[in-house]
Design brief:
alpha/beta; OB fold (Dihydrolipoamide Acetyltransferase, E2P); 4 domains; seven-stranded mixed sheet
């Protein structure tokens, strides 16, 4: 079963490319034919003739049926490996055909054929509506569509994009939506939807909740979820309530953003979504209770299977829960039949069944991570635990399971997220003993509180202890001064999977490492440590790395004395934090948030969650920016001091001076007050000067020119991504050697050719991050050296 599941998985992944070579029927016929050929050439097990009377034959331990007569293998017509190869290729062909059929069915969906056009649909919400800056989004399973003067019953999914307030509905509710059906034209978004089995988008003008699910079992789960959720919110403060809802129900609606960042940075984010471990935690006490009641096999099976099914529906059938639920069902079925069970076979059977039912799961990152983590634990958890003889057995088992799961998911984490904190190993081992008590005590408190509030409050007080412990572990692990593994790309994924498979084979084989390898590793370890120490040390001169963050700004300043200054954090929530981890940065003396626009500060909260920060400086002017609010909350959560400098203020960081040139006040009644409020400053080390002219527009630039302050600099960070909001005289006053334009794909026309011409007229060389990638400027003995990632 593991081999079959793996081959089907590969076939589904190959379907978008290989599926074009043959029609769907061709792939299915090919696969079926290859399997038939495999049967024809495979060795066959035949029973020997009956033994003569009086001849004694040993009875195999596997049972009486095997004892009817000895068996032997009779070779087929082909070589022994032929059958295996034919089976593998045949199953792969069936996987390609099945994946291609699913893709055709999605692309040919009625909703896609009705687009573009107005439509009204009756649907069932698959996920809770999620708020975003422009409105709300959701996914729904459509049951009835009315459009173009017709009505039809369908079984298709649609992506919902609504404006304004989301309807008061949750997953499982029936909802009526009126709006415009569209087929997304942007390739990235269209591909994302197709991989989820969705071909159309509905831009909603009106949304009305029709009622709860029409399936009784789902309605019960909805009612239970609502009751427990309300009880949790009443018994717990908002922060622990949000954590408990995430741990127990996979509900992140109340999760504190700072806490979520801590869990993500410490490698504990899997605890905030319902996973296979939750299924075990819920099922185990139910089965124990059934055993104490001396129930027979059939009632125990029914209760266990019902519990699993209810929990899967309760938590929204997340991919990881589906995988764990099917595995639990197969295990219970094996117990019922008294048949031997292998964890690898159960995992393979669950994956095979789910991929056949929903081929789109093969593209789900959550499903991939869940399967990889489980496969790692099946293959390596016990061998790892057996080698941790210096630990108590329970701790060794926890550490072995954590390490095994990490081996399984690391290639995928690097491929998708480009980073893995080494602190995750210790964090997961430390968190493991508290997860079950936090979840079970919290749910017990919520349930008890529904009938006896005082008892519920008492249990809630107990539940606060493991919940608070988890918060502390996540916070300290997130900012632990340990390295991060960073990388990405298909080569990393393939090499990582190969390395994990090789490690599993070697560990399970019981082989010892060759002596030459051990000696070489011990001999090279000091050399690697020495070279790493040299590369991570301070630079020989003032160095500025302008990160390529697309249409946004982020730069890191380092100095020979060890000063580290981050200027802005780019538009992506985690990119700059990942870049800093890859560079080995463990602390930041100063973080500058130049102004409250997302393309400059959206990535700063993740940075603050991971690194020790000495001081944050920002304009301190009024703003209603959601990103500014998020940054303020992150600063308060981490306890970081804040300053609001004005023109003429200075800050000294080790051997580096920061002199602020603007703003002299908070602006009002200009075309962009936030841009004119931007912090403009010179970073200097001796005679070496870099001017960060972040985003001031003409009014603020004119004030600086009129004040006759010294604007000269060797290197200029060009204001506003080279947009048409600057004065030519401003560049003349700076007269730089190099001008760095931090920009990316945009609809604004940045950088503007006229502005670039003004800069070049000063004799400066223009360096663009959209063409060069990261731009690194190093001052070396009165000279400026420039390098780039391109």
């Amino acid at each position: 079963m593991p081999a079959v599941a793996a081959v089907v998985w590969v076939g589904l992944l190959a379907a978008p490319i290989a599926g074009r070579e043959l029609p769907v029927a061709g792939w299915l016929v090919l696969g079926t034919g290859l399997l038939a050929a495999a049967i024809a050439v495979a060795p066959r097990r035949l029973r020997e003739p009956d033994l003569p009377l009086g001849t004694l034959a040993p009875v195999p331990s596997s049972g009486a049926m095997e004892a009817l007569g000895p068996t032997r293998l009779v070779p087929g017509r082909g070589p022994p490996a032929a059958a295996a190869i034919l089976v593998i290729v045949g199953i792969a062909a069936l996987g390609i055909g099945w994946g291609t059929a699913h893709a055709h069915r999605t692309r040919d969906a009625l909703l896609a054929r009705l687009a573009p056009g107005a439509a009204t649909v009756d649907a069932v919400l698959r996920i809770d509506p999620r708020a975003d800056p422009d409105g709300w989004t959701a996914v729904a399973d459509v049951r009835l569509v009315r459009a173009a003067g017709m009505a039809a019953s369908v079984r298709e999914a649609v992506w919902i994009d609504g404006r304004g307030e989301a309807p008061d509905a949750v997953r499982g509710d029936r909802i009526r939506l009126t709006g415009e059906l569209l087929v997304p034209q942007e390739p990235g978004f269209a591909g994302f939807l197709l991989r989820r089995g969705i071909a159309a988008e509905l831009r909603v003008r009106e949304a009305v909740r029709l009622g709860p699910s029409d399936v009784a079992f789902v309605r019960w789960a909805q009612a239970f979820r609502a009751l427990v959720g309300r009880s949790i919110r009443e018994l717990f403060a908002p922060r622990p309530a949000g954590l408990l809802l995430g741990l127990s129900l996979g509900d992140d609606s109340l999760l504190d953003p700072a806490l979520e960042r801590d869990f993500r940075a410490s490698g504990l984010s899997h605890l905030l979504v319902v996973s296979g471990g939750n299924v075990v935690m819920i099922l185990a006490p139910v089965l124990v209770l059934a055993s104490l009641l001396r129930l027979s096999r059939w009632p125990k099976f029914a209760i266990g299977l019902g519990t699993v099914a209810f929990f899967v529906v309760l938590t929204g059938a997340e991919p990881s829960v589906l995988r764990a639920g099917v595995m639990a069902g197969l295990t219970l079925f094996g117990v019922l039949l008294g048949r031997p069970r292998s964890a690898a076979s159960i995992l393979g059977g669950a994956v095979f069944a789910l991929l056949v039912l929903d081929p789109a799961l093969v593209w789900s990152v959550g499903f991939q991570l869940s399967v990889a983590a489980t496969a790692g634990m099946v293959a390596l958890a016990t061998p790892f635990a057996d080698r941790l003889v210096f630990l108590p057995r329970p701790m060794a088992l926890a550490a072995g399971a954590t390490l095994a799961a990490q081996v399984g998911v690391t290639p995928l984490l690097l491929y998708y997220f480009h980073e893995v904190p080494l602190s995750t190993l210790v964090a997961n081992v430390l968190a493991f003993p508290a997860v079950a008590p936090a979840m079970l005590l919290g749910l017990a408190a919520a349930g008890t509180g529904l009938v006896w509030k005082a008892a519920g409050e008492a249990l809630a007080a107990l539940a606060h202890l493991p919940l608070r412990y988890l918060e502390v572990v996540a916070d300290h692990a997130a900012r632990a001064p340990v390295p991060w593994i960073t990388g990405g790309g298909l080569a990393t994924l393939v090499a990582g999977i190969a390395a994990a498979a090789g490690l599993a084979w070697w560990i399970r084989s019981g082989r010892r490492a060759p002596r030459i390898l051990v000696v070489s590793t011990i001999a090279l370890a000091p050399v690697v440590a020495w070279s790493s120490a040299l590369s991570s040390g301070p630079p020989s001169g003032l160095t500025v790395r302008f990160f390529d963050v697309g249409q946004g700004d982020a730069a890191l300043v380092t100095s020979p004395a060890g000063a580290t200054i981050l200027v802005d954090g780019g538009p992506d929530e985690t990119q700059v934090a990942t870049e800093l981890s890859a560079l080995g940065v463990k602390r930041l003396d100063v973080v500058v948030a130049s102004h409250p626009h997302a393309d400059h500060i959206a990535g700063l909260p993740a940075v603050l969650a991971r690194l020790q920060v000495g001081l944050l400086v920002e304009p301190g002017c009024p703003t209603d920016s959601p990103d500014a609010v998020a940054l303020t909350e992150a600063v308060e959560a981490e306890g970081i001091p804040v300053r609001h400098p004005r023109a003429g203020d200075t800050i000294t960081v080790g051997d580096v001076g920061i002199g602020f040139l603007s703003p002299d006040r908070c602006w009002s009644a200009t075309e962009s007050d936030a841009n004119n409020d931007s912090l403009v400053f010179r970073v200097s080390l001796g005679e070496d000067v870099v001017l960060f002219a972040t985003e001031p527009e003409e009014p603020a630039q004119q004030v600086m020119l009129d004040s006759r302050i010294d604007l000269s600099a060797d290197v200029l960070k060009v204001p506003h991504h080279g947009g048409a909001t600057s004065l030519e005289a401003f560049f003349d006053a700076i007269d730089p050697w190099f001008a760095v334009v931090s920009t990316g794909p945009n609809t604004y026309g940045h950088p503007v050719p006229e502005v670039l011409a003004w800069i070049r007229a000063t004799g400066a060389r223009v360096l663009r991050t959209d063409r060069l990638g990261d731009v690194i400027v190093v001052f070396d003995g009165g000279e400026v050296r420039v390098a780039s990632a391109a």
